Amino acid sequence: MKLSLQPAFALILPLLASAASSSSDKKTKEPALKPCTIRSPVSGAFFDLSSLSLHPPKDAKDVKKGEVSESYHVKGQDYGANFTLNFCAPVVEHLTDVEGVDKKLAQNVSAYYTIGKKSYSIGQQNSELVLRGSKLVLNYTNGSPCDSPSPKSKRQLTHGIQDLRSAKIIDEDDEDEPRKKTSSGKEKDKDVRRKNTIILLSCQKDPLGPKSPKATISFAGEMDCTYIFEAKSQAACAGIEASPQQLGPGGVFGVIMLIAILVYIVGGCVYQRTVQHQRGWRQLPNYSMWAGIWSFLADTFIILTSSCARFLPGRHGYSRVSLNGNSNIRGRHSEDENRLIDNLDEEWDD
Questions:
Q1: Considering only CA atoms, which of 18, 91, 82, 45 is closest in space to residue 203?
Q2: Higher pLDDT, residue 332 or 78
Q3: Where is this region: Disordered (predicted)?
Q4: Which one of 33, 55, 87, 256 has the largest count of C-beta atoms within 10 Å of its C-beta?
C-alpha cells in the first residue's frame, strides 16, 4: 500500500513559510535604541551615556538634589580659553548671543568657549554615538565659523584666477554678472567652515571616589578647526541592555512558582477525578492533608479567641431591679412567701 506524500507537503510548506516569515520579521523589527545609547554590532555590548547628561533645574533659586546649575568645565591648557560642554544634551548655561550662530540655535549648543565677552560654539547637540574600536566617539558639528578659509575655497580661488586669465573679455558688463553670482550669500555659507567637537570616551572601572565627578574630561588639542577631548567614565563601560519588558530575578522566580502551582492543582484534580473517581472538594490533590491543615488553623483560631475573651470584663451574677424603688415592699413580699411555704409544709405533715 503506497501513501501519497503530496497532502503532507501541502500542509508542511505553509507552516515552514510562516515560520520563516516570522523569523525574518523578528530580525527586521529590532527595538529602536534610546538617545545617547549604542549597541556593538560585533560583540553585542551595550553602552549607555544618558547618566552623563546634565539637565538644568526647574527652579533656578531652588536647586534640588541630583540637579546641577553648571555643565562640565574643561581647562584649555595652552589654548587660551576654557571649555564648557555637556554629553548628548545642550549645555546647562543659558546662552543668548553666540558668534556666528542663530539665536534660535543658541539654546542647542552642547560645547562652547568664551574669550572676553564673546562666546564661540564648537558644536550643536547630538545624541548619536559612534564606536571606533574600544572607544566611543561623540561628535558635535555646526559650531561658530572658523577664521581660516577652507582648502576648498582656496582651490576655487586659484581656479578662478586661471579662468580669468584664459577668458576673453568682450564687454565690462559681461564680466560683472559672474562676479555677482559667485558673491551670492548662499554660496558663501556653503564654503564657510564651522567649528566641530570630537569627544573620545573610554571606560574607567575604578573611579577616584564616591565624590568624584561622573566623567573626567581633558582637552587633547585642536586641529583643522576641530576640538578633540578625551573623557573617562564608568558609564562608558560595556553593560547589558535592560529592556522594559524583561523580568528580573524575582519576577522569573514568581512566574516559575505560579506555573508549578497551576500544574499541581490542575494535574491533581484531573488525577483524582479520572483515576480515583473523586467528586466535590475531594478532587483536590492531597485533600486529607489540606483538610487537616484547615482544621488545625480553625482550632488555633478558636483557642486564641477564647483565651482573649478571658481578659474581657464579665458580669458578676444577676440582681433584681426594683421598678418603683421601694425596697420595703420587696422585703414584705419575700416574708409572705416564706410564711405561705411554711403553712403548706405543716398541712402536708398533718
A1: 45
A2: 78
A3: 166-191
A4: 87
